[in-house]
Structures
1.
Amino acid sequence: MVSKIFPADHLADQTLEFARRIARVPTMAALLVKESVNQSVDAMGFNTALNACFAQHQLNHSHWMELSRGRTAVRTTEFGMPDWRTSPAIEPARMRSP
């Protein structure tokens, strides 16, 4: 989850400062905030959505088992998956003007 975005030339310094700010929060306060957020997203159906996504994930494994005739539960280079070792480099996102 991304909660902050920093310019690349300030990334290391601002990330470290943000981590220090988080570390200064009292443990009990941080735990209570986290629990409050978790309960809120659960009330909005997050747990149900997560279960549905996991069911789809498992269905996809079954799909690949069928296509590979039981040889693999995941898509591999042998079955058309691009090889991550030869993929182009990931480029950082750039903010666009509105």
2.
Amino acid sequence: MNLIRWEPLREISSMRRALDRFMDDSSVPAVWQSDELRTLVPPVDIVERENDVVVKAVVPGVSEDDLNIEVIGDTLTIKGESKETREDKKENYFYREWHYGTFLRSMTLPAGLKTDKVNAELENGMLTLTIPKAETAKPKAIKVKAKTAAKKVKEAGK
């Protein structure tokens, strides 16, 4: 009978490689769901501009009445619900990718924003939040003054 020494690092490394292969597999759906709970995760872009930060989230099929946007501290939370409008729920689908249900997405915003002045617009399934920067958060231009050779000589003689 041979004893094999257990090496936990080798086991962890093997599990990590398997998980990496699973996550890289193109057959993994972009939206995760289970039979009990369907969860939508809208993709989000956050762009910092000179005077504001713009957050764009794709929320197709969601009306403005079904969106709830909150900023607490530096955390932005977008909650919503995509409702199914079909009346016939007994159809036998061959393939179905459209998901209905609630979603919640939270993200950390950069510091120095006027979160009480958020402008929210919804157009064609694209939610756009524009959050102005506070004056202290805006970049300040600093003028660089070059010393001339004459000034250097004069200062050296002092």
3.
Amino acid sequence: MRRPCERKSQHGAEYCSRACHYQGRSAGLTKRVVAEPYDIPPEVRAQSSASAARRYAAGTFGPIPETEIRTSAALGAAGIHHVHQHVIDLGDRSVAVDLFFPDQMLVVEIDAPALHRKRAVAAADAKRDADLAAAGYTVKRVLDDRNVPAILGRVLQALA
């Protein structure tokens, strides 16, 4: 017979202590159940969004694609004024954009096809583009095919 901390049922689990409960959750034996959604005030949600956008832009939240870094370096070498991983405040949230050209209020996003062709990501991209457009930015998306000269050509074409 199993000890209480090892029992698992369809609708939850029994644990002998909070420590065992934590271990069971950590091991994936029990899913987390939220009976009532969190009530997070909009200003706290916006502050959290801004913090996450700044962390991503700094490269501490997740890896920034190498092709994006190399494209930005090539633009800089060509003397084209831009900001790589610029954080834009949209009021209710903040977003980090791949390349920002402040003279034209232009945002260029370099999209990896494996990720950005997924339905949920494409929907989030469309909402983000609409929010940026409503804030006065022009958004262009270019394909990241891991060929930096080709990506650079598409970015230059978006600038024209």
